[in-house]
Amino acid sequence: MTDSVRTKTGGDPLPGGYAAARLRLLHEGSTAGPPRRAALAALTDQWLGALFGAAPGAALVAVGGYGRGELSPRSDLDVVLLHDGSADAGRIAALADRVWYPVWDMGLALDHSVRTPAEARGAAARDLKVHLGLLDARHLAGDAELTAALRATAYADWRAQAPKRLPELSELCAERARRHGELRFLLEPDLKEARGGLRDATALRAVAASWIADAPREGLEEARTLLLDTRDALHLATGRATDRLALQEQEQVAADLGVLDADTLLRRVYEAARAVSYASDVTWREVERVLRARSARPRLRGLLGGRGAGEGERSPLAEGVVEQDGEAVLARTARPDRDPVLPLRAAAAAALSGLPLSPHAVRRFGAPTAAVLPVPWPAEAREALVTLLGAGEPTVSVWEALEAGGVVSRLLPDWERVRCRPQRNPVHRWTVDRHLIETAVRAAALTRRVGRPDLLLVAALLHDIGKGWPGDHSVSGETIARDVAARLGFDSADTAVLATLVRHHLLLIDTATRRDLDDPATVRAVAEAVGGPGTLELLHALTEADALATGPAAWSTWRGSLVTDLVKRVAAVLAGEPVAERDEPRAPTAEHERLAVEAWRTGGPVLTLCTRSERQEGRQGQGPREASRERVGPGGAEPVRDDTEGGGAEGGEPVGVELLIAVPDQPGVLPAAAGVLALHRLTVRAADLRTVPVPEELWGVPVPEGPRAVPVGEDLPAVRPPADPGARREPADPRAVEGARADADAVAPRAEVLLLRWRVAAEYGSLPQAVRLRDDLVRALAGKLDIAARLAEREAAYGKRRRRMPAPPPTATVVPDSSRLATVVEVRAQDAPGLLHRIGRALEDAGVAVRSAHVSTLGANAVDAFYVTGPKGSPLGSVEAAELARTVQGALGG
Predict the structure, then answer these.
(1) What are the residues facing 141 on neighbouring strands?
(2) Is the distance from CB of 357 to CB of 350 less than 8 angstroms?
(3) Is a pLDDT exceeding 50 seen at residue 712?
């Protein structure tokens, strides 16, 4: 190979020979993984060695990843030109140029330095990263004794300075984790920098080199290899030196690695990252323990007259479990091979005490000789599991330790399918298995609200267990929950409750945010599904815990109030109270009625902006506080008195804006309002639309200027408002008004005002002025503002700059038997500016009336439900409804 990288004449290196050999190795060779990385490093060693040539008093040294022989296709070449200082600067510079320039000409990234051994040692003392690189120093060419001396010095200094350097390294890892996140929970993970990535694996090697502590060996080298193999495939797929496994690259990387699909790839990457993370946790805990013991040893020796301190004190925690040196460890008499409940008992004791489980104990629990729990479980095992799940935050680390040791899958075989399973919905911050544990942690804080805390905690653990199976995970999960509940030893009644909770764990949040709660059919359907007040109580708590564990977008005061309202209505039905069969919506609140009256009298839209804040969003029992409130009508903006109990925002943080819009009923209100919000870059998080009847005494007062969708008869007396809004209004002739009402009843339905309630947030920057929102809405309703054209212009100008991810096509479906009063059309689509405007325009063009709308946005996904009626105010026929759904879906490009 040396001959292939030299010229024919003078022995000078020929970069073209290295380039061709490199291309053959990366793209034509059959080798991959560690053999290819080692071959690429050896090929590069020979090339650089030929470039360096004979150089007395100097050496070329590989450091970092190149020093470890782990060259990925686009890795940097980390090298040090080491010299003893005997040669003049010009000669050293020429030697460096002889190596550096050919590398640059090849287009390879080069991280280089030129130092004497003393300078290298000084740089390592000043810069922790330099010292870490020198720990992997490997000789390439030149004076091998220089390299050996440098390596020996680097290790000696590292071990001598370990008490100082290891805390620095620990903080460096923690800071990197804060910046890049935890690899196993990211949809686009950084394979190198994120927690659990290659940097952390390298840090564990450095800890081992200090002789202070060593990382658990089980699965660690396999995890490093998988992460490196994935990075190799990523480099080849992109042709770039990137470590971020982007969504658009995952399928190609999976194919290159021979993996089934992108989800399988992510799951394997997550498993590897979990192994590295667990090893890091255990190692850094051991480092802290050893350093703490070393610092205390001189004082203890003085107290003990020079005798050793012995082992740490052991305090009992539970049968067979004691605390020692800040860990839950097994007692000397513990026998995991004879005590099948011991793993759960030890885990529960550790979590209750806020202690980590000893790695040695975890290994013994996962050993083939460990006793297996009988099926069904004895009561003690079931109670220990419930205790573990109810311990709060400490449950997470204890459960993770059990998972790392393979204990959880032995206890609950169905857990294997959700372990490290990715969730493609960006609303979810965790993998499926971690989400289940986080839900249990959230549920533990709600156990005082329910009569059966044990069922709540187990339901939290199992509610998404069906995500490991095809189809609707709630349906699959119900079957699995029955099997698991029987395995745990629950009786048939409790098993039925757990199955119901798992089957309907999304029922309350979906119904509250996507259905009309004023429709009796909605409440009855939920009551029939739940079955009893005890189950409803549990389902309410599970819904909140699930949403809080999902992520910030899944739960808010707004959503919580909707769920609570639904639960109250369902509880009344379950208590035997009759459901009122009403053809009209419930009576409006005083505030809504005031807005409706003002909109009717002025003939134009009235807006109320309320900026909400609260001390702790989503915490039970602490409602929102209104930070500011402003009403805008034809007369301009005016502050509104805060009528809410405990008003004011002292000590609170803003969490969103509630926007109320009241408009006399007329065509095009929904698309116009949604379009104006989109133009002002307001993201709709939730919304609903309903009609508010105008009080009868105002039916004889026609709208001054604006159009009305509900005429009251042409022969009504013209009663105009006075020019001065503050002047006293003369009452109309009662007989005329009564006659007008009779005529109105004969020719038209009663007068109504549309009330749209939005929860919005600015995409970026500050919120727009309320006056501007109203002005644009007036223009849109008058046909003077072409919203579709404005949105199209913006998309043309900025759409290409947005990073677009693959998304499933939009769907519009008719939800059967959801309402006796209207037809329910549910739209699911990727959220985008102007989406609600396009849906509203499609419904408007189809000639249907929107009785109410319920908009829900979770991350990038919009799920909107529209209650629509035909021209006569009745539900659509099945054929008309299906055609409407196709029309809406077609308007969205589905």
Answers:
(1) 60
(2) yes
(3) no
Closest CA to 691 of 672, 709, 711: 709
Quick: pLDDT tens for 520-558.
889 999 999 999 999 999 999 999 999 999 988 788 887
pLDDT digits (tens, 9 = 90+) for 419-449: 999 998 878 899 999 999 999 999 999 999 9
Cis omega (within 30 of 0) for bond into 734 = no
Beginning with the edge strand found earlier in the chain, give each strand of the sheet holding 752-762 in spatial order.
Answer: 636-639, 625-633, 606-614, 653-664, 752-762, 682-693, 849-858, 861-869, 823-830, 811-815
94, 100, 101, 102 alpha-carbon torsion, rounded to 10°: 120
Task: Look at strands 606-614 and 653-664 and give their pairing.
Answer: antiparallel
Residues 133-147: tens digit of each pLDDT: 999 999 999 999 999
839-to-222, 384, 754 alpha-carbon distances in Å? 51, 52, 18
Residue type, 148: A
- The torsion of the CA quartet 274, 548, 468, 816, rounded to 10 degrees, works out to -160
Gap between the Cα atoms of 466 and 415, Å rounded: 10
Rounded to an integer, what distance in angstroms lies between the CA atom of residue 588 and that of residue 593?
6
Q: Is the distance from CB of 272 to CB of 280 less than 8 angstroms?
A: no
Sign (positive/negative) of CA torsion 418, 422, 428, 431?
A: positive
Give the residue among 493, 506, 487 at the shortest CA–CA distance from 455.
493
CA-CA-CA-CA torsion sign (233, 237, 240, 246) = negative
Q: Are 676 and 607 in contact (CB under 8 A)?
A: no
CA distances from 36 to 39, 106, 235, 795 (A): 5, 20, 13, 46
**Alpha helices per DSSP H over 555-634:** 557-574, 590-602
pTM of the complete model: 0.80
Q: Are the CB atoms for 483 and 498 separated by under 8 Å?
A: no
Give the residue among 133, 147, 128, 286 at the shortest CA–CA distance from 208.
Answer: 286
Phi and psi at residue 664, to the nearest 5°: -50, 135
Residue 699: alpha-carbon gap to chain centroid: 51
Distance CA 323, CA 254 (A): 45
| Dist CA 179 CA 277 (whole Å) | 16
d(CA 352, CA 321): 12
pLDDT band at 4, cuts 50/70/90? very low
The CB density around residue 653, as the number of other CB atoms within 10 Å, is: 12
d(CA 226, CA 180): 20
**DSSP states of 163-208:** HHHHHHHHHHHHHHHHHH-BGGG-SS-BTTTSBTSHHHHHHHHHHH
**Structure token digits, residue 648:** 């004011």
Nearest to 225, CA basis, from 38, 431, 67: 38
**Beta bridge mates, 614:** 653
- Give me the pLDDT at residue 302, please: 53
Q: What is the 3-state secondary structure (H, E, C) of 758-801?
A: EEEEECCCCCCCHHHHHHHHHHHHCCCCCHHHHHHHHHHHHHHH
DSSP class of 810: P
DSSP states of 285-350:
HHHHHHHHHHHHHHHHHHHTTT----SPP-EEEETTEEEETTEEEE-TT--TTT-TTHHHHHHHHH
The residue assigned the tokens 């644009």 is 776
Identify the CA nearest to 433 among candidates 447, 446, 419.
419
Residue burial 270-297, b: 16+ Cβ < 10 Å; e: rest: bbbbbbbbbbbbbbbbbbebbbeeeeee
- For residue 821, give the nearest of 850, 796, 860 by alpha carbon: 850
Tell me the angle at which helices 262-303 and 247-256 cross, rounded to the nearest 10 degrees. 90
Q: What CA–CA distance (Å, rounded) separates 453 from 538?
A: 8
Contact between residue 762 and residue 683 where contact means Cβ atoms under 8 Å apart: yes
